[in-house]
Amino acid sequence: MRHRQFGRTAFTTTDIGFGAWQIGGAWGDVSEADGRSALNAALDAGMTFIDTADVYGDGRSEKIIADVLKARGGTRPMVATKAGRRLSPHIADGYTKANLEGFIDRSRQNLQVDRLDLVQLHCPPTEVFYRPEVFEGLEEIKASGKIADYGVSVSTVEEGLKAIEYPGVVSIQIIFNIFRQRPAHLFLKEAARRNVAVIARVPLASGLLSGKITRETAFAADDHRAFNRHGEAFDVGETFAGVPFEVGLQAVEEVRKLVPAGAGMAAFALKWILMNDAVGVVIPGARNAAQAEANARAADLAPLSAEVMAATADIYDRLVAPHVHHRW
């Protein structure tokens, strides 16, 4: 894996990191033992970036990360977490300095650190991006030494463009994959121009781009791919990247034809993201050690040709864009 400077921060990270949502919850039954094995496998493969959130398993993900890193010792990877989704109701007025500092203190305790490497607002309501006092509060918390840096996980390109106008925002986490190509049209260029790190999430479209999901695949009741198909619990764009399930399966079959012999579709999909140098790190999740190891191997794939990249753009334009491009 290549190492890239993480925007304006003091960190460098591998271009493939570990997304820790799956080891927290909302992905069906993932045992703590499997979660620990997946994280250890990712770290054994050399990954130096972990992304989590305080609501992943109500802190379970953060606690597993803390335990694994404590047991391993040595040089710590960069650990990014998120705050804001513990608010109930989840409204802009809840994004006060006091509330955010409370969430940050809880994450510091869960992760067993005095200072968080990076805290990200967790897909806040759009109104938050137009409240400078929220970001002023984060600056004050940073000055107190509780966080090293802060960024934002956004739902839309427009939110990302607004967020990077705040000089203290060092990173943006955004959905970017073969089925969500709009960020490459403007946002990624602007982020690179401002030296803002980009974290690409939902890189496999909730598993669709692994090529292993079929019409017959059954999802557990507590898996968001079952309970959030139509945005019942949170933004539908977080589930299958917002692509209607049947459309996604059709598009996957066309993508499959482009995968080089001997390569897996998941590795191909991750490599596609890394073809854009504006992406600092991509964060696929893993339910077990084998998946984490497979994600790491994506770095070994040869660069994709211009013809292959053009073919993925055509698949997106014909099949996927009408459903997602205007929404996110």
What features would you describe in this structure?
This protein is an alpha/beta fold. The chain contains eleven helices and ten strands. It has helices at about 30-45, 60-70, 95-110, 130-145, 155-165, 185-195, 225, 245-255, 265-275, 290-295, 305-325, and strands spanning about 5, 10-15, 20, 50, 80-85, 120, 150-155, 170-175, 195-200, 280. An eight-stranded parallel β-sheet has the order 3-4-5-6-7-8-9-10, with helices on one face. The longest helix is centred in the C-terminal third of the chain and has 19 residues, at about 305-325. It is globular, with a radius of gyration of 18 Å. It starts with a strand and ends with a helix.
Compact description:
With 328 residues, this protein is of the alpha/beta class. It contains 11 helices and 10 strands.
Which features characterize this protein?
328 residues, alpha/beta, eight-stranded parallel β-sheet, two-stranded antiparallel sheet, 11 helices, 37% helix, globular
